[in-house]
Structure formats: structure tokens, C-alpha cells
Amino acid sequence: MADIVRYKSGKVYIPPEKIDEAKSIGLYDYFVQTGVQLVRKGRDYCTADHNSLCLSTNGRWNWYSQGIGGRNAIDFLIKTEGLSFQDAVLKVLDESPLEKVNIAKAQQSSSQTFQNSQNQQNSQRDRGFIVPERDINNDKMIEYLSNRGIDREVIDFFIEKGTLYQDKEYRSVVFLGTDRNGTAHLANVRGIFSGFKGTTAGSDRAYGFNYYCAATVYGQDKLKGLHVFEAPIDLLSYATIIKMGGLDFRNFNYLSLSGIYAPKENIAETKVPVCLTKTFEEYPEIQTLYLHFDNDGAGINAAKAIQIIIRDKRVEIQPPPQGFKDVNEYLTNLDSYMKNNGREL
Question: CB of 189 within 8 A of CB of 196?
Fold first, then answer.
């Protein structure tokens, strides 16, 4: 981005031709280049996390549940992250250079309008894994997660573990996906002041936000069960529910898939999610999966598919009770739910 001028006063000048370049990058292309998981929806696409966020390959998008839409990636960043026009242009140019978008388009055939997940991962690794810079504190993040019902001890535990922190630039929540040695390979970002959800460039989707209780402390029996979620927020919510039930949440194992995947119509052709495949490689002790996916079509279908295609392990489907979309919604309404059903935590 050497052709963008920064003055001594700190102001940035973006040449008109660079602005036009940024405006030509649609949200679909931007998401493909930044590794956001997309799912086919009729003639268009939606993200794995938001089936009401619909994208067209011509660049236009509509987020029906939020009542917003736009013509390109700039519009999306302004409306969901609260960026200024200039900052949105800079972010689009930095993460989705036009020449890379054109290369991606040239590689697409008429029957395949986006790169498969493996090509996305390879492209990300070529650009290098980007980890958002840590802020000097986590105040906004802690407030946000607490308002979502997450227990403060659970929040502090993952902060101390180093896999949960507040992004310095946008004050977003960052969830790191690490391997068994603690090395980060993926960064999920959740906007605090917007509904933005995404994965940073270079992230390896074979990893997800996770916690495994140490075998050296608790013994290998603790590693035999793994609780699996669509999103990191649901993982933290379930850990909170476990604590509310009087148990030590540190004695359980958790994995977020960083979004759900769409199984093929022919279940026999569906592959095990790459995140689970990698987990089985690193933690062969795991024998049972507990799937806590959303109570929607995508979550239900994905859970059933995983239960069918994974045959060498026990798979239990444990969605939140009917009437609750996901684990976090269940958590935030848990007190009233228990009272209405005559139960105690």
C-alpha cells in the first residue's frame, strides 16, 4: 500500500483510483479472500454463522435480520463495524487486494463460484497468519461477555490461558484456536459494537477455540469426552452452565468449530469437519462427542450428519432445549427456564 500517502500530521490521503478499486470489491469477494466460511443459499450465499446475511457474487449483500444491506465490502464494514469510510477503504485494500480477487475469479468455473475450503486455507497461509494486537486491558470485552451471561471466573480463566483477549484496534473479542502445544493457528473475531463475526487472514480452520483439561493433572480419563459447539460464545456459555451446576468447568473438554458446515445431500459423501479430524489426531484419547449445536436447520442437519459419518466414536446430540436458538440464549434465560419447569440448578 505504498501508493497511499500518510502526511506528517497523521492524516492519510487515498488516491481516487484506489478508492474506486476498493469500491469494486464486493462483500462476497472480500469474504472469500479473508477466509469467511460461506454456504450456498439458492442462487446466492450466506455465511456459516448468519443465514440471514445473503451475498450475491455481483458484490451486493443484504442482512435481513438486521435490516441493512449494501453494494460492496466497504458498505458492510461501515454498517457493521462502525468504521469511517476511509478506514473501511484501507481495510478492504489491505485484506482484499484487487489483483487477488481477480485471480480468484479467474480460477472459478461456471459451476463453482467460490474456492473450496482447502484452497482458501492455502491462500491464507500464503499471506501469513494475522493475530490481532492485544489491547492494554480487556474492559470492553469483559463487559460484553458478562452481559451475555458468561461467568467472570470463566472469562478470567481463558484470559489467563491466553486464548481470549480484547483487540486493540477495534475493541473486538478475539478467540484463538491453538494446538496441543498451545501454538495459535486461528483467530476468530467477534465485534462488540456491531454484529460482525469473522476469521483473520491466514487462520487454519483445522483448529478452533478450545480447552482440554491437562492429562498430567487429571488423568487421561478426562480426555475421553469432548463438548463441541458452533461458536466460541456458546463454548463459554456452556462452561458457565457447568459452573452454575456446582461442577468445576476446568474438568471438561471444549471445542468450537468456529461456525457450522453444510453436509452434502448424500450423507455418505460428507466429510468429517476438518476441525474434528485435526482434534482426533492430536487427542486420540477422545471417545465421545457431545454436540451442542444450534436449534436451527443448519445445526440440526450438521449434528445428524456428524453422528452418521463418525462411526469409531460415540456421538451424542445435545442441543439446547426447544425454544432456545443456541447455548448462549439458553444461558441468559436459564433462571426463568428452571423456575417454569420446576427445577433447580
Answer: yes
